[in-house]
Amino acid sequence: MTGSANGQSILIVDDERRHAASVADLLSLHHFNCQIETDSRRTVERARDEQIDLIILDLNMPNMSGIEVLGALRESRLDVAVIVLSGEEAVSNVTPILRLGADDFMHKPFEPQQLVNSVTNSLTRRRLIAENEVLAAERRETNRLHEFMVQASPDVIYMLGPDGRFEFINQPLPDGLATTTDPKGQPWQEVLNPELAERIAWRFNERRTGDRATRHYEMDITGADGEPRVIDFSARGLYQPGDGQGERVYSGTYGVVRDVTHARLIDRQLAQSQEKFYSLFMDSPDAIFISELDTGALLEGNDNFRLLAQQLGAEDAAVDSFIWASAVERAHFIEGLRHSPTFFETHIDREISGQPALYNVTARVLQLDGVDCMLASLRDRTEEHRAQSDRRAMESRLQEANKMEALGNLAGGIAHDFNNILASIIGYAELILESRDLLSPDQVEAYLSEVVVASKRARDLIAQMLKFTRGNRKEVSAVAVSSVIDDVSKMLRAAIPSTIRMTPKLDHSLEPVHIDNLEFQQILMNLLVNASDAIEGTGTITIEGRPGQQISACAACGEKLDDEHCVLSVSDTGHGIPQALLPRVFERYMTTREPGQSSGSGMGLWLIQKLVHDNGGHITVRSTVGEGTEFRIHLPYASQRGVLADSARKSGTPASDIDPAALSLAQPAISKNRGQIIVVDDEVSVSSFISEVLRSHGFDAVVFNDPIKAQSYLSSNIANISLMITDQRMPGLNGVELATHALALRESLPIVLITGYSDVDKLEEAKALGIEHVLSKPFHISEMLECVHSLLDRSDIAATNASHNRASG
Asked: 3-class SS at 407?
């Protein structure tokens, strides 16, 4: 986007002249006139004395900060656009800046084009505001002119209400037409001459609009003086929008009566009067048109419709087909309109100036001169749609940031648990190393079993954390509430002060709920962290899941769940929330913490209610100052949402409950002369461990810590290789890429892929290659040996069958 000065002046206020000069140089390249001010105290004076159109204002300056300058500009009521620049990242700083009248806020450093776009948009916005004010003033003047013309018109102008009574008349009706000179408030039937009332009833009390309304209807009457007169009158029905279903509501009749006996001198005023009401069509911000339903022939279009036609390259079009991308699309639209002739709504996507555009289209069928036509309106929803997309993206980023904030709260607890695990592993390992000559085989086996159990606990802890830190991939399923309460309580236990007692109440018979498991964890984790922050010193947090009813309405939206459902309750014995603040706790950026306390983004409770509502639930809260607070999450059962919940009832065995005797390694039979097994892993300790296990079981293992060298070896020795075991994450060449190379050399080569938890996105790619066996670190020796034997046995069977087929042939 390229700016143009057009006499507009920009003042760059920054105490660092070098930065100000760089900004000025950038904007000068785009033809903006720039001036520099390093003393922020002179900003208001210069903006008032010099004709400054836009100020680029640094936020942090000595003598007078950017916030203070904004306040001074606001107090001085200076009409100048302001763009604020700052290196601060805190979201909470943006709100007061925008409230003080800043047009935009940008973080340093920024892209040059970003600043140019912001300057151009701010100046354009100010120009449009000024133009709108001029147009509004012109419109007010036009209305005053219309009022003057109605009162000064020689015609009789009247308005009937929906009940047929005169609501307005600017002068008495011509004698001979009416029986009274002051008809206001009276029914029109009682005002008109009885001989004429029946004759012109449906014209005088006109309810039609457009071309079907009464226009210039002339009739002969006899005046009070006995002389013949010719009266010309026009009338039309007035309508207001109805209930949003396309129907309009009759609100009265507007009419003009003219005595054309003496002269026809006021044609121009009548045309202006008609134009005033026709403006409902012509001045609409939407693109409105009328066309024939079958042929598409255009009958009428307002200025915005003609502008749209020009943008689509069809300014001279005689039919409406250019609106749709194809004739088939128009045919589908007309079919829908015929099925719903009073109101039909849809949207269409077009491209304007190389950019996608979205239009909302509403239409209704009407008959004009016996021909089926449609009155349609196109409203540009492009910016609104883009804003909604941006808002959803921002909310997604906020949710991810909140999750990372919660992860930070877990850090201490994770470190505590992991250190305990390491202490167990290191202790037993050192005990074996230092006392192995004094220990019996049973003692050594027992100690090693403890090392394995502790290692499994470390694996499970890492798996849980990696699952929690996955991306925002919504995976809705039937989730067991008691399992989530148990998992989150254990994760947070070490992160919450030991003076706070945490009491989970688990009901394993509670029906599962239909929700994303990670979002459920995030909801509960935020509630527990808030409860912990509310307790000073000793206290209790109680977490409970139970069946129940929602008695009070949702504190965020005012709605309720009707049937029995799951109620997740988190209560604390903290300081409580004042009653005056309870209605606002779910607002964005709202926090109940006292000044000086550690504070998050203020998005926690807002995000909780959003996640709850996204999953079909509601939230209630009750609190007493000095006693504590209880939040209740109301979620429908998975069965109520048509979801099978059998999988949610399954649970695994905790690592701490594993019988050490069950960890003894299976000892398959020794295997000889089954070809080479290639082991590829850049981690020497892992590759050495795998190769030692394979060799101890009779296999010929060839080890590579460099996948490039392994690739070269495969190319030269593929015929001698029976199986390949490869890690996924390696520098230079990953496991899937190495497998692709190997399978290109020999399509039937058995392959085992080893992955970490962060490599799950590669599983589908591996399956597509035909790799069925994937081992996740850490794994049992027995798991690996079982994979190896299974693949080699299958390979032997395939080779035998191939040999038999060749012999038969």
From this structure: helix
**Residue 468 pLDDT > 60:** no
Helix (H) or strand (E) holding 637: none
Separation CA 523–CA 488 (nearest Å) = 10
At residue 350, what are phi and psi to the nearest 5 degrees? -130, 175
Q: Is pLDDT at 66 greater than 80 in this prediction?
A: yes
CA distance 580 to 625: 11
Nearby residues of 316 by Cβ (< 8 Å), 6 or more positions away: none
Q: How many CB atoms lie within 10 A of CB 171?
A: 14
Q: Is the peptide bond before 778 cis (omega within 30 degrees of 0)?
A: yes
Residue that has been written with the tokens 């906020």 in this structure: 398
Q: Which two structure tokens, joined as six digits, stand for 96?
A: 């007061």
What is the DSSP secondary structure assignment for residue 666, as one 8-state letter? P
pLDDT beyond 50 at 666: no
Distant-in-sequence, close-in-space partners of 771: CB < 8 Å, separation ≥ 6 = 739, 751, 752, 753
The sheet with strand 355-368 has its strands ordered as 298-301, 287-292, 371-380, 355-368, 344-352
> Each residue of 697-739: pLDDT tens digit?
889 999 999 999 999 999 999 999 999 999 888 888 989 999 9
Rounded distance between C-alpha atoms, residue 444 and residue 438, angstroms: 10
**CA pair distance 4, 29, nearest whole angstrom:** 10
**517 φ/ψ angles, rounded to the nearest 5 degrees:** -60, -40
Tell me which residue of 192, 225, 233 sits closest to 183, measured CA to CA: 192
Q: What is the pLDDT of residues 376-434, one digit of tens each?
A: 999 988 888 888 878 777 766 766 666 666 566 555 556 656 665 675 677 677 778 87
Q: What is the DSSP string of 370-406?
A: TEEEEEEEEEE-HHHHHHHHHHHHHHHHHHHHHHHHH
pLDDT of amino acid 11: 93
**Global model pTM greater than 0.70:** no
Residue type, 18: R
* pLDDT average, residue stretch 497-512: 88
CA distance 262 to 274: 22
CA 626 from centroid of its chain's CA atoms: 38
At residue 69's C-alpha, the angle toward residues 67 and 74, to 5°, is: 95
Give 361's strand partners: 346, 378
How confident is the model at residue 423, as a pLDDT? 58
- How confident is the model over 39-53, as a mean pLDDT? 87
What tens digit of pLDDT does each residue of 517-565 get? 878 888 888 898 889 888 988 999 999 999 999 988 898 888 888 889 9
Contacts of 774 (CB under 8 A, 6+ apart): 752, 753, 754, 755, 763, 766
Distance CA 546, CA 211 (A): 67
Model confidence band, residue 652 (pLDDT cutoffs 50, 70, 90): very low
- DSSP 8-state assignment for residue 2: -
pLDDT in tens, 137-150: 888 888 788 778 77
Q: In this predicted model, what pLDDT tens digit does every residue of 774-786 receive, in sequence order?
A: 887 777 778 888 9
DSSP for 462-495, written as a single string = HHHHHHHTS-S---EEEE-HHHHHHHHHHHHHTT
Assign 588 to helix, strand or coil: coil
HSE-up of residue 82 (Cα within 13 Å, Cβ side):
26
Q: Phi/psi at 375 (nearest 5 deg)?
A: -105, 115
174-196 tens-digit pLDDT:
877 887 888 888 898 888 888 78
Q: Residue 541's closest CA among 510, 505, 570?
A: 570
Query: Which among 178, 243, 249, 254 has a CA at the least distance from the CA of 215?
Result: 254
Please give the C-alpha separations between residue 490 and each of 425, 493, 720, in angstroms, as whole numbers. Answer: 21, 5, 51
Residues 6+ apart with CB under 8 A from 277: 236, 238, 254
Contact 402, 603 (CB under 8 A): yes
Q: 802: exposed, middle or buried (C-beta count within 10 Å: 0-12, 13-18, 19+)?
A: exposed
Give the three-class secondary structure for 249. Answer: strand
